[in-house]
Amino acid sequence: MGDWKTVTVPVLSSDSKNIFQYTSEKKISPPNMNSQVLRLPLPSSKSMHSFFSAFCTEENIEQSISYLNRELTTLGFPSIYAESKGKELNLISIINCMNELLVLQHKNLRAQEEEQLELSKREIVGLQERDRQLQSKNRNLHQLLKNEKDEVQKLQNIISSRATQYNHDMKRKEREYNKLKERLHQLVMNKKDKKIAMEVLNYVGRADGKRGAWRTDKTEARNEEQMYKVLLNDYEQRQKQLLLENAELKKVLQQMKKEIISLLPPQKQKPKERSEDGPVLSDLEEDIGELNKENMWELSCETVREQLTNSIRKQWRMLKNHVEKLDNQVSRVHSGTLNDKDVISREDHELETEKLELEIQQCKEMIKTQQQLLQQQLMSPCDDDTTLLLQDCYLLEERERLQEEWRLFQEQKKNFEKERRSFTEAAIRLGLERKAFEEDRGAWLKQQFLSMSTDYKQSENVTTPSAFIGTSDQDNRVVNSMSQQKKPHCMLSGPISAESCQTSQYISHNSFNAALKKPAGDSKPNQWEESDKEETE
Amino acid sequence: MDFSELFKLSGLLGRFSPDGKCLASCVQYRLIIRDVNTLQILQLYTCLDQIQYIEWSSDSLFILCAMYKRGIVQVWSLEQPDWHCKIDEGSAGLVASCWSPDGRHILNTTEFHLRITVWSLCTKSVSYIKYPKACQQGIAFTKDGRYMAVAERRDCKDFVSLFVCSNWQLLRHFDTETQDLFGIEWAPNGCVLAVWDTCLEYKILLYSLDGRLLSTYQAYEWSLGIKSIAWSPSSQFLAIGSYDEKVRILNHVTWKKITEFEHPATVTNTKTIVYKEVEKSPSVETERFSFPPTRALASSVFSTQSKYDISQVPVSFQYIKPVADRANPKMGIGMLAFSPDNCFLATKNDNIPNAVWIWDIQKLKLFVVLEQLCAIQSFQWDPRQPRLAVCTGNSKVYLWSPAGCVSVQVPTEGDFQIVSLCWHPSGDSMALLSKDNFCVFFMATAKDGTKWQVRFS
Q: What Pfam families does this protein map onto (chain B) (predicted)?
């Protein structure tokens, strides 16, 4: 770091003194500061110009020079001024300083590089160490595994050898045992044990009711036949099941094939694919043509089966490729065109808004024009034709209104007549009832009188007529009141005209009470009835 | 639901007749025939010695009682109670006895598996089958009863003989590529015979009816192999349960494995339903105590009620690792059974003794796991519908159907540890057997128009 070199620069002027000054002064300068300053990297080329322009401009040349001079002198470089107080620059010293600075910079960089190189070297060494350790570990494990495997093999060999030994021993023992058995069997058979017998009360019939048959060659042959029949039956059943299964699976495969074909895009669009799968396609088409024939399905030979499976495999692969392509496309679309979407949508949005605004304007204009027209109509005088028309309209209106009122009037009249009829009927009924009641009353009074008169016969005979008259008077009075009540009706039934029907009704109601008090002649119900009849006719 | 009272039983010998009308049970040397609906005693037979084995003939007319110690087989007739038949093997001894499919012949296996004697009830003829194989399932009849397969061993080699049951003629005789044949089983369609090897070797061979080898399947070598197998009722699938706690399903077309069912200690699939049996705390009301205590009360006091809870997956089961140095370890798939409609497979992993695994065969996935409080003793499918009955050695019977799961307490006085159960052929009732007793469990019949209700709790 402190490898200062004395640079002998050719003397250009009498300012060579500075050089010596420079060389002597270098020892004085503190190394730390130098190192600190020297470690500053040189500015990159890009910012060089800006840096330079930032530091020194046309205005502050003097200041910057003085600043530089100060810095350099503190660092131990000779002053760049020609004289201590003058403003002339010592070019040589400046150049020398620059050179020194460059040299220092180079040294700095090299030192850094060396440091880095050492670090990386140390790292490499560490990693190599680790690698070696792991490899040794790996080797150990491999060795262990090999040992284990060897042991396993050894054990297996031991087991197999022992097994053979045991088998051999077993066989030996078994032979001995068989010999014993034979011996025993002989002894048992020789003994002719009478005990070995079957005692049975009576022999039972066979389960199937048939008699037992002798064992002959025929029966042997029959047995064989039977056995083969059984086996064949079983195989046939199994074959049937397998055929059914096969048929189903073939159907499924065919369905799948059709669906795959439908899913795949039409091949004519993409020439590239065509060229690739050219031969394949032609084969496929042939296959499709062949295999779609119903007859071929019935065959179950190798070639047809292979063709079917191969064709399905091919188509499945094509479908897979197609789906993969679609996936790629979708992913591309997703990532790439998001921005465009926004832009497009905004544009659309703006177009829409413009359209809507236009519409609004048009509507507004329409409203305005309509308003104007309306006002014109109202304000401006119309032609004679129009007025006449208008008047006619008004007249028509009024006429219609009148007709409506006439209709109402007629309806009310009808209602009124209905009411009156019902009233008269009620009155007639009432009169009849009253008459009956009076008769009853009269009879009852007569009876009472008679009964009384029988009591009074001894006393008086004169009073009877008065009592009787009293009752008759009462009756008459009742009749009169009844007739009085009926009178207003008779009075009112006369003048009825079409126009004043309603008004007359009102009048009749009002004068009802007034008419009650008027005395009237002997008007019996019959009279009233007649007048009513007249009126109705 | 209705329970009969407890009846005496010995030797877990309680069997329904194939026609479903009678129930046979043994008490020491007596054979009792009861009517299925009323449980009234129809017949009572007395045998010469303690009965070890009983079997109904296929037409339900006869019943055989085998007494191995004395070497005697006695046959009784239901039609004629006076009829009797006694087969004495004498010094040959008796190890096993069974009916032929026609119900008129009895096959006795003599001691040391020296021979199989075929006794006829119709004629005086006797047939012998030599060198029968001394294995668990050495004789197998086809479902239609036409053919019989017998496993034989001569000169340290295994053979299979096929006989025609109608006249006992030898049809086929072929050797099998097994080390030590362990069992044979016909497919329900009667055309394929499955032959599997000892547990030291995982190998199963499939032979056609005419003796041709159709296929061989070997899942792995060296480890313990096949423990149990089951054919599906349609003969479509063959389920093989092995000691590695897996069930492998082979299909009948290619005889190749189509799937593997694992039985891990932890079930994590969220679509599996796990029913866990939990005890309900018994509610005893002291005021209602009466003397002598009624049966219902006694049962509620002495036995705890239980119900099923649905556990949230993942569920861990109690896993038992058996001791390695003992033979016949309790590990692997010990029980396998298909439902009659082919839709479900019930399995039991002996490493997880408290659980029954029910697999959906249509989806080839685990459907349900029933986790019980005690170890599973036995389970059996209803012969008519997909309903599974499980018993675990306590006095409860557990029923599972796709609709749900229910725990039924048998109302008994005292101890009744159900060890085995046996469905009636119609699926309407079942016999619950314990060491000393049995009772009949009637499910609600169509009288009241309702099938048994599943009570969820």
A: WD40
- Which DSSP letter does residue A297 get? H
Q: CB neighbours (10 Å) of residue B10?
A: 19
Nearest CA among A222, A187, A200 for reference residue B126: A200
B18 shares contact with chain A (CB less than 8 Å): no
Measure the CA–CA gap between B66 and B55, rounded to whole angstroms.
9
What pLDDT, on a 0 to 100 scale, did the predictor assign at position A429? 93
Residues of chain A with C-beta less than 8 angstroms from the C-beta of B222:
156, 159-160, 163
Block residue for tokens 């207003």:
A488
Does pLDDT of B386 surpass 80? yes
The verdict on B92 touching A (C-beta cutoff 8 Å) is: yes
Spatial CA neighbour of B17 closest among B64, B50, B49, B52: B64
Q: What is the DSSP letter of B286?
A: G
Q: Which residues of B touch A191 (CB under 8 A)?
A: 91
CB contact under 8 A, A200 and B209: no
Q: What's the CA gap between A400 and A147, in Å, rounded?
A: 125
Q: What is the pLDDT of residues B43-82, one digit of tens each?
A: 999 999 999 999 999 999 999 999 999 899 999 999 888 8
Place of tokens 């050898």: A161
Mean pLDDT score of chain A, rounded to an integer? 73
Per mean pLDDT, which range of A193-202, A464-473, B175-184, B333-342 is the poorest?
A464-473
* Nearest-Cα residue of chain A relative to residue B162: A227
Among B451, B368, B381, B384, which residue's Cα sits nearest to residue B421? B381
Q: How confident is the model at residue A332 (pLDDT cuts 50, 70, 90)?
A: confident
Contact status of B122 with chain A (Cβ, < 8 Å): yes
Which residue, among A171, A200, A218, would best test binding to B if mutated, counting the most B CBs under 10 Å from its CB?
A200
SS3 A220: helix
Domains of chain B: 132-262 (2.130.10.10)
- In tens, the pLDDT along B391-406 reads 999 888 999 999 989 8
The answer for B 206-245 residues in CB contact with A (under 8 A) is 208-210, 222
Are the Cβ atoms of A231 and B84 closer than 8 angstroms?
no
Going by C-alpha positions, the residue among B189, B187, B117, B178 that lies closest to residue B151 is B178
Q: Chain A: which residues have CB within 8 Å of chain B? A: 156, 159-160, 163, 167, 170-171, 174-175, 178, 181, 184-185, 188, 191, 193, 195-208, 212-213, 215, 219-220, 223-224, 226-228, 230-231, 234, 238, 242
Inter-chain touch B147–A227, beta carbons under 8 Å = yes
Contact present, A467 and A449 (Cβ < 8 Å): yes
Res. A208 pLDDT band, cuts 50 70 90: low
Task: Inform me whether the pLDDT recorded for A305 exceeds 90.
Answer: no
Chain A partners of B19 at a C-beta cutoff of 8 Å?
Answer: none
Q: Please report the ipTM that was assigned to this predicted complex.
A: 0.78
* Sheet (strand B273-279) strand order: B306-311, B273-279, B365-371, B355-360, B344-349, B333-338
Q: How many CB atoms lie within 10 A of CB A282?
A: 10
Considering only CB atoms, B222 lies closest to which of A159, A178, A202, namely: A159
Say if residue B220 is exposed, middle or buried (CB neighbours under 10 Å; 0-12, 13-18, 19+): exposed
Which residue in chain B is spatially nearest to A208 when comparing CA positions? B102
Rounded Cα gap, residues A465 and A463, in angstroms: 6
> What is the reported pTM?
0.62
Residue B345 in contact with residue B328, Cβ under 8 Å?
Answer: no
